[in-house]
Amino acid sequence: MASSSSLNLSQATLSRSAAQQHHRGSNRPASLTTSSLPTFPGLKSSSRAASTRRRSVRASASTSRRSVRASAAVETLETTATELIDKSVNTIRFLAIDAVEKANSGHPGLPMGCAPMGHVLYDEIMRYNPKNPYWFNRDRFVLSAGHGCMLQYALLHLAGYDSVQEEDLKQFRQWGSKTPGHPENFETPGVEVTTGPLGQGIANAVGLALAEKHLAARFNKPDSEIVDHYTYAILGDGCQMEGISNEACSIAGHWGLGKLIAFYDDNHISIDGDTEIAFTESVDTRFEGLGWHVIWVKNGNTGYDEIRAAIKEAKAVKDKPTLIKVTTTIGYGSPNKANSYSVHGSALGAKEVDATRQNLGWPYEPFHVPEDVKKHWSRHVPAGAALEAEWNAKFAEYEKKYSEEAAELKSIISGELPAGWEKALPTYTPESPADATRNLSQQCLNALAKVIPGFLGGSADLASSNMTLLKMFGDFQKSTPEERNLRFGVREHGMGAICNGIALHSPGLIPYCATFFVFTDYMRAAMRISALSEAGVIYVMTHDSIGLGEDGPTHQPIEHLASFRAMPNILMFRPADGNETAGAYKVAVLNPKRPSVLALSRQKLPQLPGTSIEGVEKGGYIVSDNSSGNKPDVILIGTGSELEIAAKAAEELRKEGKSVRLVSFVSWELFDEQSDAYKESVLPAAVSARVSIEAGSTFGWEKIVGSKGKAIGIDRFGASAPAGKIYKEYGITAEAVVAAAKALC
């Protein structure tokens, strides 16, 4: 019975997820054929270096086939098996070539060069169930160089994933297809994370590996290793150049993520040409300095045994992540475009496709998978089902012995929240002491961590300022991975992307991360990927306005609220007090497929009468109103710290006989999603006298106040001075609100 229950857990996860889908080395590998080196700035085709390189490539090409055949005698596989692997690898190459050619769009070079890596991983190493892409204990794969996505689509197709059929390959990069131009986890089951912007994927992979290490430390027992999977990634030269990859790989080395194995596609070609024009560092040395184990596979084109041996060595290293530098030829097999930038991001063209088919001895029509290759790969469907069934039986035994831990792990796997979890959130009255919303946020964070097993997070070296420490837990470190406080260091961009990986590891993992609101500029790309990939990260952003005072304009966000309100599928909150802060956290937890941003104050704010958790759930709501018949003389609208200012202005206007409605507009997105009737009840169309106040850009506020209303805000950079002085000089005052209201009504 327990075994059945465990199986149902995996099936439920599958059903729910399906329902929710809507360094340079001097030795280069031998090229298979003659390759022309293109002309590009910094290395002219007529240059001595270019001529020497072409001679070298041609010379290596003439011996390539002989060297491959000679090496067959020392291969561990039988000759026939090796030939089948060659055939399988070429199948991967040509599925990519054909799909890109049909779409006349895409990146064939990486799949052609990385096919051996992909084959060894998906056919020999990784554990997965093609019929349940969401099986919890599967190995994870991340294609950080997302432009080469046809590599992954071809592998998913061969392995038997329902998400990538032959027709899907033929619809590569077309409207409504499951094979978009870069991997998207929400479109293609089997794709773990959304990649494309270079470096994001390897940082996501760090998050996935962190999640595995954390959960293994919490739930594994001496007699039961219930959490045991690896994270594999392929990244390219471009990923290596991006700063985010260094941020993420630095902290991965510090954390000792031994089950993270990254393959570096060392092909020395970028869009502008040979990487020697801009990228000559020793990647090997850098990664060793970052605390990684480094292995070099010198022949990534045909060295299957080298790749296997490297993976075996990597798995033997338990206390460090591993970088396997695999030197490859981009566009391997193309007679005229291999080892050149022209094969990076363009279709080969019909003539070159034919030449490549002839060169690699591939007589088949486009998209054809030879029967022996198909038969070889077909074993993964029953084998994957058996792996999952074996794990389910193991979990059933685990559940009998460790029922409490099993229940927690189940909730993390399923994403099911504990009953009554929201009751843990603190509530406040007007008599409660004034406090900064960053402090009130810490109260909420600690309350949630007590009742939600998958709640964890941290700050980019600002925990004591962002107020994000979970007081009942220690720090997640190499020796204490069971703890829940994550110390990211000053790595904002890496932090955001790592949290995306955590969130996308399991539905019940809810990561939060923090810095000053203005420093979202350092991590915006990761936050955008959060929204796109439906990763429910909670972004705790403090010091949200000129209210931080003396630190000045470098630290005072102005345009940031508007910029996040413009981003799809993200919830932007600016709570005014304790109840609204608690409400924002409630909504954030309830939206696992939408990231949330909480903009929080440094300065103390009063607990205002009329605010509520329930109001926040509506986005905008009435805090106070002395009008009747839904026809106030004027509507005052505030957010965050300026709701208090609007409340003071409302009080003054009421003393003068005006009927005033005070509205808190904590989340534009949530308000937009309410019914027309509700929106009319808060902001009646007949009332055009509307004044908004917010210590940020007025951009976008016309949508709320209308063409006849007035938006009070800041459309210039801030200043270094005490907060009160800045507010006064910039006109963010109750007096300014009163004057604007009187001018309108």
Summarize the structure.
This protein is an alpha/beta fold. Helix content is 44%, strand content 12%.
- State the share of residues found in helices, binned by percent: 40-55%
CATH top level assignment of the largest domain? Alpha Beta
Average residue pLDDT: 91
CATH architecture descriptor text of the largest domain: 3-Layer(aba) Sandwich
Helical/strand content category? alpha/beta
The residue ranges in which pLDDT falls below 50 over 5 or more consecutive positions are 1-79
Q: Approximately what portion of the residues adopt beta-strand conformation?
A: 5-15%
Number of helices: 28
Main β-sheet description: 6 strands, parallel
What Rg do the Cα atoms give? 29 Å
Strand order of the biggest β-sheet: 10-9-11-12-14-13
Which fold name corresponds to the CATH topology of the largest domain? Answer: Rossmann fold
> What gap, in angstroms, lies between the N and C termini?
71 Å
Tally the beta strands: 20
Topology:
Layout: H1 2-19, H2 48-71, H3 79-103, H4 109-125, E1 140-143, H5 149-159, H6 166-170, H7 200-219, E2 231-236, H8 237-241, H9 243-255, E3 260-266, E4 269-270, E5 273-274, H10 283-289, E6 293-297, H11 304-316, E7 322-327, H12 350-360, H13 371-377, H14 380-401, H15 403-414, E8 435-436, H16 437-451, E9 455-459, H17 463-466, E10 485-487, H18 492-505, E11 510-516, H19 524-533, E12 538-542, H20 560-565, E13 571-573, H21 578-589, E14 596-599, E15 604-605, H22 613-618, E16 620-625, E17 634-638, H23 642-655, E18 660-665, H24 668-672, H25 676-682, E19 690-693, H26 702-705, E20 710-712, H27 723-729, H28 734-744
Helix pairs in contact: 1-14, 3-4, 3-5, 3-12, 4-5, 7-9, 7-18, 9-18, 14-15, 16-21, 18-19, 23-28
